[in-house]
């Protein structure tokens, strides 16, 4: 490990010591006076090196150039000091005890202090903002510091068409990085989505992985984390409040009164705020002296003239509150009868969440927030957040949320948790910024493993066509997650539902159902990945009930179907050690040339882009647009939104729009009920059927079992 | 400052070095090898001391016992290393430039790293949870460690009846601690309320103080802080979602179906969760085997049978969203016609916020959360959060919010920011826990200055009768804040309103108006404090336009009226230096014996408690109860809530219920329109007139001027 012996009065090094007092390690051997200083890579500049005479007790410095030192330091950093603890855990619990004790496993493992983790992966102290002991936000200045650093390998984890039971993409993702870092000693980073509190307290429970492939502490991961979703909720609802208040004020005031209030005279002087000047520009009024506006210009400026029936902005809460799906607001007498019907979405369905996930800088996020369209004026003009004067405040509310949160896996390897846009009306992928930061940190031989929501037909397609377009990043490998259970269902097995006991087909060996699923849904999902020119590794997430014959059959057929490899994974019961085979397969596949290409040209007409996805990805014969959808597309073209990518809102339970059609449905026409647009996030989203944007609570929600011991502060029931 | 010279291999000290690597200071003089270690006081145990030979280069250790070291260290800690920087700021800006540059002043001052501040005030590293660089949560374990430490002096800052313009209680509070710590060298702590984002983006703007009496960084203070209000919002709305979902499920399922879902068979076994067993006990069903319940008992257990017209729980957002004051929910077809009218309050009006402010431990908070009554069953029984099965989850959501947040003033002195219950339907005081922690930290000669909302007739009365009852703490001094402007209004000056230009009476000298205000409202507010047996110091918050004659007159009359002292304050323009006189007056008053007594005996009938407050505090002839209020009081007595303290919901703009009646209104009867109860928070609140629990946005909200420079990350417009 890189160490320097320092002279106390050294003018160059001393300031470093002050900067890095938290890296100071106490001198164990007192043969030299002074202290050993473990310097973060970026500080080993030639200037520093020149001030230090190579000495026998200085190892690995003088002959290293900076680039290589960064490498070396990172790889050192990624050696997981607590991997062995996991193995101890294994001994303690024994295989499969985990099925009922994810909580216990998480608690039995003590996370490294986050500042230690940060130092191990080469972050500078000033690039870290700790939130408690075990999580920290990472400042975006890191991107500038490492901009010369080559990117690592970029791996996407996607799945076959999921069953109601879920196939374990998150655990595969975490198991894979645990194997890469803790066992293959390759730098790697997992990039995960922050879970919504709605499902956590509703049906699904936590999302920190499970068994021996978890993010720890799982309570922190599943609760408020560093407050990003709360910030999104605050920002989203400030826009909503601004919309209704503005409509009320416009309805009850003259142009003159509005102008006097919007541009008040302060000590006898009227000035437009910068936000107001932007609006004037958009309106083609190039004046900066308020007094110079004509009455007509005043009226145009002060009246957004929002059409109440054409407001698309909804309020949000991060709670499963079904009674807010459709509501009437403004019924208090103070609102003077300005009532209207609207609704709440779950916070992660907010366009602001989609923006957080796609923004690649603070500037970019701020511009996207300003561009968000909240509704249409009576004259048919889009009204934006900036027109409401709220865009600056939104950027202020979101200034910390844009920094990814650093956590660790059960084996002490680094994880970024950042953003978590809804996967049905948004793109369902974690943030561009987290991926970019991680790719720099791992270096060119390292791996960043990121996860896409739902099946490959949805999450992966959006990852390639939307997220990769926004980021400019190119994936090297797709890991396609499958389970024997899900394959049996696609092969014709009976329906299952969460909670209900599994039919015996799913418990006993049944090779024909397995084969059927492999040759239908699995094959199709592999082909979809290949449309984008990226090699596919199939990861079979093994369950206790799977037989060796079933496992072998899946791997064999997967390779026939074009997967560059297919391996079983035992991360749940064995942690990284159980995913070694997968890690090797991914490492091997990543060394092959990848010929990534987009599915469609962004300049194609909206209808053509939709048809391309429907036919080539879903396997539809054609699409059918409702009159409403047609009208919307015309409107978007006329507004100049025609060259945005497409974000399909479709059920994830089938390749088609019919949730009960498993395997590979054919001979269907995809109906496009309506088309909407998220201008700030930057995509058009066609609605295929009705998408619920607000889950509900069951009769017995998870929260019945969630509890806190007020003495030990131990949390139970969060899975 | 306490320093030790350490031998590298010392078995006792070496672990400390690892714990406290962040305290390591590089050895400047290399005459001794090893490093200097600045040890936090609590670690200077006899065991440590014995291992260290007193040496000439070890100062101030060997002859100190631990207790004295803690003391010494605290006082050392409170010497503000950056006070001089404030004076530099003053030179730079010159007096009064601040009026338009609070932002600039805040930015010009660099806050100490919060871990340094924490060390200075005697916190151990493991008692701190940093949230970024400049704020941190403090763990409650501190209370146990310091339980033997005597409390400091306890000072309440209250105000005369406020004008629409506010009288500056917050700036007086901050100026006072800056003077006590940074200039009188007395340990002191300010305890402030966390501001709601609603007003911050609405009309009021920030609440971090102003001028040279601010909490810094003011942006952090005014935005998400450490997420407490967001946690309250999440917890409050989880309860709301649980209420409506439960009513829907009860309306659509048989007893048997409900029971099967609420107590599901897992691998053939049915078990009650602990929360369900608590409900069974309350129902008098002392059985733990689900199979043993009779059909009648099953029905009693599964049906909360909430009366939709008697649900008192509202949803909340931390946004000024007037259109949510009255809404209809459940209008989507999925809710099967179970629509009902309800509304949203601002988050700080949630009972959960009042609980956070009054809880004195995690256990206490959890019990209060479980006790919260959300509505009444059709048979008239109260239904609690625990009946809904959600109380454990609420405690989990609030587990971090209960830890106070440590920040600092412009002069580097410590501040706790914690809780901020609405002052009109709740008690409007910061948290019991923050005050208790601060009182231990400052030690017996130190001062804790806490602030009460609104005028003394409301905020101070609730501080004494509700907060002090909950905490068991006894105040030493009341600081009563007044301004010449407000006194003139109480003396008969014309009305003013925020934004509108001030009438000349408030700009030119007018001794008769000033005298009128002093002899009416100021005198009465002093008398109210004296009802509780606590000495009063009047703090006149001086404005540029005040003349010396006006200032002298106020101080003179205030003393005539029984104030133990009355002094002008110039903290806004001069920081702590401008509040030295106040600090001396408070220090002197605190040395006098205080004979604190409650205004009423908690066991008095509810009506008598209300009458006592109305007559003795407000000066009413009597009270008049509406039939509704009478009925509620009977119901609360019957439910056993009769011995809770009273939390009046009354306008803050007059001692009476009539906002326009300034000075000291007499000859009025106080009408009690309705009476409500917060059983978890633990008070009954009578409604005097209508209280808005959801502010609105004006035509031009503050957010028009709030902006973020995406390159420098500088925030503008947050005052």
TrEMBL record, chains A, B:
Transmembrane stretches, start-end: none
Gene Ontology CC entries for this record: cytosol
Assembly and oligomerization: Homodimer.
Similarity comment: family membership: In the C-terminal section; belongs to the formate--tetrahydrofolate ligase family. In the N-terminal section; belongs to the tetrahydrofolate dehydrogenase/cyclohydrolase family.
One Pfam family here: FTHFS
Organism: Sander lucioperca
Gene Ontology biological-process entries: carboxylic acid biosynthetic process; tetrahydrofolate interconversion
GO molecular function, one term: methenyltetrahydrofolate cyclohydrolase activity
Lineage: superkingdom: Eukaryota
Gene: mthfd1l
Name under which the protein is recorded: formate--tetrahydrofolate ligase
């Amino acid at each position: 490990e890189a160490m320097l012996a320092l002279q106390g009065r050294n003018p160059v090094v001393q300031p470093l010591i002050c900067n890095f007092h938290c890296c100071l390690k106490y001198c164990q051997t007192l043969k030299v006076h002074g202290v050993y200083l473990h310097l973060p890579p970026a500080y080993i500049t030639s200037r520093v090196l020149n001030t230090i005479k190579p000495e026998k007790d200085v190892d690995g410095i003088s002959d290293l150039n900076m680039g290589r030192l960064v490498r070396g330091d990172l790889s050192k950093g990624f050696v997981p000091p607590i991997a062995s603890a996991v193995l101890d855990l294994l001994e303690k619990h024994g295989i499969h005890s985990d099925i009922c004790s994810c909580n216990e496993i998480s608690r039995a493992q003590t996370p490294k202090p986050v500042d230690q983790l940060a130092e191990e992966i080469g972050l500078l102290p000033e690039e870290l903002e700790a939130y408690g002991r075990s999580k920290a936000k990472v400042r975006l200045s890191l991107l500038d510091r490492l901009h010369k650093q080559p990117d690592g390998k970029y791996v996407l984890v996607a799945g076959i068409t999921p069953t109601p039971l879920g196939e374990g993409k998150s655990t595969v993702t975490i198991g894979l990085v645990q194997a890469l870092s803790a066992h293959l000693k390759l730098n790697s980073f997992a990039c995960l989505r922050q879970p919504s509190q709605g499902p956590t307290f509703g049906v699904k429970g936590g999302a920190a992985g499970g068994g021996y492939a978890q993010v720890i502490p799982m309570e922190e991961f599943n609760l408020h984390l560093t407050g990003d979703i709360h910030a999104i909720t605050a920002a989203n609802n400030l826009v909503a409040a601004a919309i209704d208040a503005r409509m009320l004020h416009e309805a009850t005031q003259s142009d003159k009164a509005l102008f006097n209030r919007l541009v008040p005279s302060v000590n006898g002087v009227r000035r437009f705020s910068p936000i107001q000047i932007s609006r004037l520009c958009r309106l083609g009024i190039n004046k900066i002296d308020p007094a110079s506006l004509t009455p007509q210009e005043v009226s145009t400026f002060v009246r957004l003239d929002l059409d109440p029936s054409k407001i698309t902005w909804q309020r949000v809460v991060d709670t499963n509150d079904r009674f807010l799906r459709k509501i009437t607001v403004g019924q208090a007498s103070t609102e003077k009868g300005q009532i209207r019907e609207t609704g709440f979405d779950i916070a992660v369905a907010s366009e602001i969440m989609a923006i957080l996930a796609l923004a690649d800088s603070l500037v970019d996020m701020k511009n996207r927030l300003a561009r968000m369209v909240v509704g249409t004026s009576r004259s048919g003009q889009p009204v934006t957040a900036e027109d409401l004067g709220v865009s600056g405040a939104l950027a202020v509310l979101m200034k910390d949320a844009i920094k990814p949160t650093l956590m660790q896996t059960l084996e002490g390897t680094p994880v970024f948790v950042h953003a978590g846009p809804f996967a049905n009306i948004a793109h369902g992928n974690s943030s561009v910024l987290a991926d970019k930061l991680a790719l720099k940190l791992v270096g060119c031989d390292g791996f960043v493993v990121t996860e896409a929501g739902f099946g490959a037909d949805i999450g992966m397609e959006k990852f390639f066509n939307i997220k990769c377009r926004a980021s400019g990043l190119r994936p090297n490998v797709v890991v396609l997650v499958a389970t024997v259970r899900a394959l049996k269902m696609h092969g014709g097995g009976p329906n299952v539902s969460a909670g209900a006991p599994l039919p015996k087909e799913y418990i006993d060996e049944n090779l024909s159902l397995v084969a059927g699923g492999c040759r239908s849904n699995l094959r199709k999902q592999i082909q979809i990945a290949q449309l984008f020119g990226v090699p596919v590794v199939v990861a079979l997430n093994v369950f206790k009930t799977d037989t060796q014959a079933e496992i072998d059959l899946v791997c064999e057929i997967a390779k026939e179907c074009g997967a560059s490899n297919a391996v079983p994974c035992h991360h749940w019961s064995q942690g990284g050690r159980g995913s070694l085979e997968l890690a090797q397969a991914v490492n091997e596949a990543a060394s092959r040339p990848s010929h990534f290409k987009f599915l469609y040209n962004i300049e194609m007409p909206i209808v053509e882009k939709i048809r391309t996805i429907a036919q080539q990805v879903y396997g539809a014969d054609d699409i059918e647009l409702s009159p409403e959808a047609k009208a919307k597309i015309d409107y978007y073209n006329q507004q100049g939104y025609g060259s945005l990518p497409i974000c399909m809102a479709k059920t994830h339970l089938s390749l088609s729009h019919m949730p009960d059609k498993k395997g590979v449905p054919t001979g269907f026409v995809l109906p496009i009920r309506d088309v909407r647009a998220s201008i700030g996030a930057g995509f058009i989203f066609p609605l295929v059927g009705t998408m619920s944007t607000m889950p509900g609570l069951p009769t017995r929600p998870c929260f019945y079992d969630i509890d806190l011991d007020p003495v030990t502060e131990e949390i139970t029931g969060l899975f």
